[in-house]
TrEMBL record, chains A, B:
<dbReference type="InterPro" id="IPR003781">
    <property type="entry name" value="CoA-bd"/>
</dbReference>
<comment type="subunit">
    <text>Homodimer.</text>
</comment>
<comment type="similarity">
    <text>Belongs to the transcriptional regulatory Rex family.</text>
</comment>
<dbReference type="GO" id="GO:0003677">
    <property type="term" value="F:DNA binding"/>
</dbReference>
<keyword id="KW-0963">Cytoplasm</keyword>
<dbReference type="InterPro" id="IPR022876">
    <property type="entry name" value="Tscrpt_rep_Rex"/>
</dbReference>
<dbReference type="GO" id="GO:0005737">
    <property type="term" value="C:cytoplasm"/>
</dbReference>
<dbReference type="Pfam" id="PF02629">
    <property type="entry name" value="CoA_binding"/>
</dbReference>
<dbReference type="GO" id="GO:0003700">
    <property type="term" value="F:DNA-binding transcription factor activity"/>
</dbReference>
<dbReference type="Pfam" id="PF06971">
    <property type="entry name" value="Put_DNA-bind_N"/>
</dbReference>
<keyword id="KW-0805">Transcription regulation</keyword>
<feature type="binding site">
    <location>
        <begin position="101"/>
        <end position="106"/>
    </location>
    <ligand>
        <name>NAD(+)</name>
    </ligand>
</feature>
<dbReference type="GO" id="GO:0045892">
    <property type="term" value="P:negative regulation of DNA-templated transcription"/>
</dbReference>
<dbReference type="InterPro" id="IPR036388">
    <property type="entry name" value="WH-like_DNA-bd_sf"/>
</dbReference>
<dbReference type="InterPro" id="IPR058236">
    <property type="entry name" value="Rex_actinobacterial-type"/>
</dbReference>
<feature type="DNA-binding region" description="H-T-H motif">
    <location>
        <begin position="27"/>
        <end position="66"/>
    </location>
</feature>
<protein>
    <recommendedName>
        <fullName>Redox-sensing transcriptional repressor Rex</fullName>
    </recommendedName>
</protein>
Length: 248, 248
DNA sequence: AGGCGCTTGTGAAGCCGTGCACAAATCGCG
DNA sequence: CGCGATTTGTGCACGGCTTCACAAGCGCCT
């Protein structure tokens, strides 16, 4: 079955995969796991695309970059495709993640089960506040940030999450990079400067809301002029589009 | 000066603004507020671009869509530009936001100060768990989700944040839409189906990590072949690129 | 065994976004 | 008052992404 492939860790079988595709693969992966739980063993591109909320042609093109994955006339083998995507995303082993800043948000993240079920393991918690150091959260002890190099080395941590106030984020990022971390997920609302070879992704709640605000603003500006449905009661507004996403 | 514009709420002065630009305006806004606090009253496109972490040409093109904003030879008036961007993003009044799902993550969000400082006001908290209803968080009372239509109406809420488990998210979204909410920020790892005219943005921590994982995987695959720096000690790795982002 | 229906994989076209490079505009100074 | 330094605003070309549409391939049924 899956063993027939020429080798799991063959190495450079990356046809350098468009960035947009990479960003969607995790979405497919989640939908596939869901389908697998529901007992499906094959999916059509149409079905998977619906479950992931994308265009089916886009999905097929994305998957075509992984090599020959589907079977014409049938669809995609769910478990095989899961393996392929996890392979490409480097999720074959559970990656160790460090979380820096165990405050309001950090506590929530530390207790988040979604880490474990999606291929990651929180390997360490750090904070600069001495009164927090030593605290036990979800089976982990909060360590002082000065221990960073040591722990990063011991636990082979390459990914870190920053959940400190914005004014501390750049400093934390510098220390992370210095300790050997090469990927950072930043929750602090600020721009991080890192050397080449280090990846940074950011999550900014306020930015997301402001983008929504823009569209709200635009909607109300538009509905002000035409004979608009100011408040259609509450009929027919709900799930019109699409139907159920997962399964059928 | 600024009063000379033909009218602040003129309405359809939207040259429909590229989506990519909309997504960056909040970033500029944050950088501008930072600059204003530091006493700057004008910025060059170069300076602002550096502070926001983007290309200066891109920034100029983005801002050019807002109309005549800068002064050649001088730069941009910081406070004026802040006003313009807030205008376009619809941040002239503090928008009311509902938060549904006051669990682990919801608590953190409810206590987040960044809402207030970036143009939003948490107007209501909802949960389905009766044992949570009535709880006071940050000056707000958690209400039962059945009160949604009433409260949404009273508080003129058009934006909602979903922080419930994934299996409840679609149901919550339906009820939100039914109550009149037209923008949703979804933290639950699932696809939401909503009717036309309703905007959904999602934040999925695991997806972000998986994208980082891919790049990690690729990095280690690449450094495996050439005469690579497996572990360069810890020298010279840190802040090489760029320098300080904000001010100079 | 052969045909038929279904689904993948992909060529090609169009759109959007990015970044260079430069002309136009503005200010300050002599 | 005019000139040069400076910085904006933008025309243009290029690359990437999306989408349509269809031929090639596969399994199933007769
Ligand atoms: N709370 C939220 O819901 C939320 C939402 C979106 C974004 N954020 C952002 O996430 C970040 C954290 O938010 P929060 O509400 O948890 O803040 P917080 O103040 O509750 O927690 C910050 C933690 O970081 C620690 N810290 C400070 N400096 C540090 C350093 N140099 N090294 C290590 N640890 C350090 C503090 O001791 C504290 O425990 C902020 O940047 C915030 O803007 C928070
Ligand atoms: N905790 C995190 O750090 C984190 C990070 C990223 C994403 N998420 C996602 O955010 C969501 C919430 O995570 P959490 O850790 O806070 O979970 P949680 O179980 O602690 O909280 C969920 C809350 O939602 C409420 N709820 C359930 N069904 C509801 C319904 N139909 N209507 C209203 N409220 C309802 C529950 O009563 C509970 O209070 C999940 O989807 C999770 O995957 C969480």
């Amino acid at each position: 079955m899956s063993q027939q492939r020429t080798g799991p860790t063959d190495g450079p079988d990356f046809p350098d995969l468009p960035e947009a595709t990479v960003a969607r693969l995790p979405e497919y992966l989640r939908a596939l796991h869901h389908l697998a739980e529901d007992g499906h063993d094959t999916v059509s591109s149409e079905g998977l695309a619906a479950a992931a909320g994308v265009n089916s042609a886009k999905l097929r093109k994305d998957l075509s970059h992984l090599g020959r994955t589907g079977t014409r006339g049938v669809g995609y083998d769910v478990t095989l495709l899961i393996d392929q995507i996890e392979q490409v995303l480097g999720l074959t082993h559970r990656r160790a993640v460090a979380l820096v800043g165990v405050g309001n948000l950090g506590h929530a993240l530390a207790g988040y089960a979604g880490f474990g079920t999606r291929g990651f393991r929180i390997a360490a918690l750090f904070d600069a506040d001495h009164s927090r150091v030593g605290e036990h959260i979800n089976g982990l002890v909060v360590r002082h940030i000065d221990d960073l190099p040591e722990v990063v080395d011991q636990e082979s941590i390459s990914i870190a999450v920053i959940a400190t106030p914005a004014h501390a984020a750049q400093h934390v990022a510098d220390r992370l990079v210095e300790a050997g971390v090469t990927s950072v997920l930043n929750f602090a609302p600020c721009v991080l400067n890192v050397p080449d070879g280090v990846d940074v992704r950011k999550v900014d709640l306020a930015i997301e809301l402001q983008i929504l605000s823009f569209h709200e603003h635009r909607k109300s500006a538009l509905t002000a002029l035409p004979a608009a449905v100011q408040k259609p009661g509450r009929v027919g507004m709900a799930n019109r589009l699409g139907g159920e996403a997962v399964a059928t």
